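Below is how a single chain appears once it has passed through the pipeline. First comes the sequence as given, then the structure the pipeline wrote out for it. We keep one example in the README because the format questions we get most often are answered faster by looking than by reading.
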Amino acid sequence: MQNILLSREEVARRAKEIYENSIRQQVKTEENIGKMVIIDIETGEYAVDKTDIESAYLLRKKNPLARLFGIRIGYKVAVSFSGQMERDYR
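Resulting structure:
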């Protein structure tokens, strides 16, 4: 794999594109709402868990140089410092 430097914005854009086009239909189930999906933006592989720690560990084990991005399933943001997160009802 090539090691090309990407901005945070480009990593986020690619991850969101992969999520919308390939992953969302599979993971957006009632039992997964609120869980994190971690996406390897180079391979499209992903993993889901309650926090992002186990998923990130699993993907890094497969590819130590993976570029990972996390999305909270069913929400517009992954984390909130104010304690409230807005749901995404699409």
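The chain has a mean pLDDT of 87.

See the next section for the split statistics.
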